[in-house]
Specification:
- It is a single chain.
- This protein has about 525 residues and is an alpha/beta fold.
- The protein has 3 domains: about 130 residues, Response regulator (Rossmann fold, 3-Layer(aba) Sandwich), CATH 3.40.50.2300; about 150 residues, 2-Layer Sandwich (Beta-Lactamase); about 180 residues, Hypothetical protein af1432 (Orthogonal Bundle), CATH 1.10.3210.10.
- The protein contains 17 helices and 11 strands.
- Helix 5 runs parallel beside helix 8, helix 9 runs antiparallel to helix 10 and helix 10 packs across helix 14.
- It is elongated.
- The termini are far apart.
Length: about 525
């Protein structure tokens, strides 16, 4: 255990004998004693030394005890001061109390009496300091708790904003953005229903795209346009704007978010709505749509924080929608450019474009039968339309040769999947389509090109494309041979099952062939 700290007493008196006796007495009692002959000396000591108590005479040269007490109080108000005087008076007593003096001793002072006074003062000082420390600790704790609450609120706010951004970033279409917006409105606020409307000059009233409702169980219920709710009258059957329509159009025209915390402040909302928010969504500084949120529960209201979150969400949604529109525009432009390249191929080889269109259609029939997703079918369509685009890099004398190709010429032809994949790869948009284009001439037995992949190492969509490509090629007239009948095509594909073609894909091919689903996509003379 640490020893108790030695307490320091400063004794101030112009009588050297009193200083000497006091010093000896209190040092024997275990105290550390410092002496001074007047107030000026004492004040200099106070500024340099740690002093726990000061005992001073009242009448001294240069600076008396009263002034010393006042100066000590200004420097450190936790140092108790005891005054000694041989001439007590009511006036002096009052003055000492005003200067923060804690005790008043009358000379001649007995040392044991002084000791008792000092001990009492030390007890009081200890309590005083503890109270100060407790107060400071309580204030620090309160400040820390306040900071923690503020930090927690900030972290929570950042989490909400991050969630808004990540949820909207993961959307797959503009319509999906609007659906997510209504879902998050229900999740982030106390809204019992949320709706998104398209606002357009060509429309007579707001057109509801999607809606979301909070059920008593806490689950969400999504509805596309036309669902019933407290916001009745949005779409008037007679084509005329209802009062609520006009209210929403006014908000859209204003272009600023609206918070109706308590619906009793306005008569423009339907009965049953206790609180209401409406926020315009602007695309290129023009209002494109409107998000509305309503609370039907009594004694529950939206607050400015709800408005802040939803406004932030709508700004993010506008950014995502703009990006989607830009992406789709770029996508369509690139497709147009690539199809123009295919048209350039057609000018060289009339077989190529019609072949690509038919291959895409045949691959789609097989893909649907194999339960591919909508995304995979889209990939097949684009890849099918462009799978031979690499032939634009093959010389005319090879591409249009009427006779059989030499081994060197065939090596040139074998380059077209790589050329096509490189063309698509430069665009940075169709990675999976690029893979199909590259590998649509691989064989199930590993003897294909360009990489000699085999079995399941060949992407499934490329295996489907290989069957569709071969089917149309064999069923079409070429410069170097005549077409096969479709029965002949079926026989040839069946013979190459497990060598050139995936048996699972061939099985599906034979099934749709016997169902008559392929004939409409074959060259006309084979229909």
């Amino acid at each position: 255990m640490n020893p108790e700290p030695i307490e320091t007493i400063l004794i101030v008196d112009d009588d050297d004998s009193i200083l000497e006796i006091s010093n000896e007495y209190f040092e024997l009692k275990g105290y550390r004693v410092i002496t001074a002959g007047n107030g000026m000396q004492a004040l200099a000591i106070i500024k340099k030394e740690t002093v726990d108590c000061c005992v001073t005479d009242i009448n001294m040269p240069y600076m008396d005890g009263m002034e010393l007490a006042e100066q000590i109080r200004k420097i450190d108000n936790t140092i108790p001061v005891i005054i000694m005087t041989g001439y007590p008076s009511l006036q002096n007593s009052i003055k000492t109390l005003q200067n923060g003096v804690v005790d008043f001793l009358i000379k001649p002072v007995h040392l044991n009496q002084m000791e008792l006074s000092i001990q009492r003062v030390f007890r009081q000082r200890k309590l005083f300091i503890e109270n100060i420390l407790y107060k400071k600790e309580a204030e620090s704790k309160a400040k820390l708790e306040k900071l923690n609450r503020e930090l927690h609120l900030k972290v929570n706010e950042l989490n909400i904003l991050n969630r808004i951004m990540s949820d909207l970033t993961e959307t797959s279409s503009g319509r999906d953005v609007f659906r997510r917006v209504t879902e998050m409105t229900i999740t982030l606020t106390s809204a019992t229903e949320a709706r998104f409307y398209i606002i357009n000059e060509a429309l007579k009233h707001p057109f509801e795209v999607t809606a979301n409702f909070k059920q008593p169980t806490g689950h969400h219920e999504v509805s596309e346009s036309g669902a019933s709710s407290a916001l009745k009258g949005i779409s008037s059957e007679n084509g005329q704007c209802s009062a609520l329509d006009r209210f929403l159009l006014t908000i859209a025209a204003d272009g600023r978010p609206l918070l109706v915390a308590d619906s009793r402040t306005t008569s423009q909302l339907p009965r049953g709505i206790c609180s209401f928010i409406a926020i315009p969504l602007c695309i290129q500084e023009k209002v494109f749509g409107l998000l509305t949120a309503a609370i039907k529960n009594d004694n529950t209201f939206f607050n400015p924080k709800d408005l802040y979150y939803l406004t932030f969400m709508l700004k993010r949604a506008a950014y995502v929608v703009e990006n989607w529109a830009l992406y789709e525009n770029i996508y369509e432009n690139l497709l147009s450019t690539l199809y123009a390249l295919v048209n350039a191929l057609e000018a060289r080889d009339s077989y190529t474009q019609q072949h690509s269109i038919r291959v895409a259609a045949l691959a789609a029939v097989l893909g649907k039968e194999m339960n591919l997703t909508g995304e995979e079918l889209d990939i097949l369509n684009v890849a099918g339309r462009l799978h031979d685009i690499g032939k634009i890099g093959v010389r005319d004398d090879i591409l249009l040769k009427k006779g059989s190709l030499t081994s060197e010429e065939f090596l040139e032809i074998e380059k077209h999947p790589l050329i096509g994949a490189n063309i698509i790869g430069q665009l940075g948009l169709w990675e999976r389509e690029q893979i199909i284009i590259k590998h649509h001439h691989e064989r199930f037995d590993g003897k294909g090109y360009p990489d000699g992949l085999q079995r399941n190492d060949i992407p499934l969509l490329a295996r489907i494309m290989a069957v569709a490509d071969a089917c149309d090629a064999m069923a079409s007239d070429r410069v170097y041979r005549k077409r096969l009948s479709f029965d002949g095509v079926l026989k040839r594909i069946d013979e190459e099952t497990g060598t050139q073609f995936d048996p699972d894909v061939v099985k599906v091919f034979k099934k749709v062939y016997h169902q008559g689903k392929l004939k409409q996509y074959l060259p006309e003379k084979n229909n």
